[in-house]
Each structure stands twice: as structure tokens, then as C-alpha cells.
Amino acid sequence: MPASKIPKPQQPVRGSETGRPIMALLDLLGRRWALRIIWELRSTPLSFRELQDRCDQMSPTVLNQRLRELRETRIIEIAETGGYTLSPSGEKLLGAMMPLWQWSEEWSASLTED
Questions:
Q1: Contact, 37 vs 100, CB < 8 A?
Q2: Alpha-carbon span 45 to 81, nearest angstrom
Q3: Burial bucket for residue 20 (CB in 10 Å: 0-12, 13-18, 19+)
Q4: How far apart (Å, rounded) are the C-alpha atoms in residues 91 and 57?
Q5: Which residue stretches of the chain are H helix?
Q6: What digits encode the pLDDT tens for the residues 71-107?
Q7: What is the helix (H) or strand (E) element at residue 86, kind and residue range?
Q8: Which end of the chain is least crowded, N or C, by CB within 10 Å?
């Protein structure tokens, strides 16, 4: 599969020839920086430069590619005020991720209890 192919349901993706929706999502979110971009957009729209600064100065090429993928899959969109923001679908995805974030905090604390 070419690196430029955007994972979408009902299309072959890494780990699934059938393109099950969950496998397409995991493939998309497993791409470098994708989750970080979503996380950084959780509370406010951000410009390209702001996202780059918050993501440890990732390369502009990679940031452009991830933004294109996340826009094409309707997880993010251009904000009315400019910059990038989570779409309604992206907000739902973030809501689904919050229990995982909470679990990770508890897991981290349990590892430091020793």
C-alpha cells in the first residue's frame, strides 16, 4: 500500500484486507503525529505554526500530510476563525479517547507505586 493512501473503511489497510472501520481508524491514528495533532486540537483551534510548535517542531511536510489525511477523513476541519479544529466527528472521537486517557493516568500512577 503506498504511503500516501489514506486509510478509510471498506478499503484494505494495514492489518485488514477487508477494511473494517476499526482497522482503518487504528491505521489512521497509528500514523506518526496523528494522535498528537488531535490531542492538541482538543480545546482550541490552532494555526499550522501553532500546531508545529506544540508538536515538537515536526517537519512541515509531515504536518501537511497528517492535516490532509485528518481533513479528508473528516476528523479535523478548517475553523471559521482560521486554523484547524476538530470536526463534530473529531469531537466524538476525542470523547471516545478520554476513558483511555484516564486509564493511562491510573496505569502510570500504579507503575510508580512500587
A1: no
A2: 8
A3: middle
A4: 25
A5: 21-29, 34-40, 48-54, 60-72, 88-112
A6: 999 999 999 988 999 999 999 999 999 999 999 999 9
A7: strand 84-86
A8: C
Q: Given pLDDT bands bounded at 50, 70 and 90, which one contains residue 1?
A: very low
C-alpha cell at 82: 482560521
How far, CA to CA in Å, does 97 sit from each of 48, 91, 103?
Answer: 23, 10, 10
Distance, in Å, from the CA atom of 109 to the CA atom of 72, rounded to the nearest integer, reads: 37
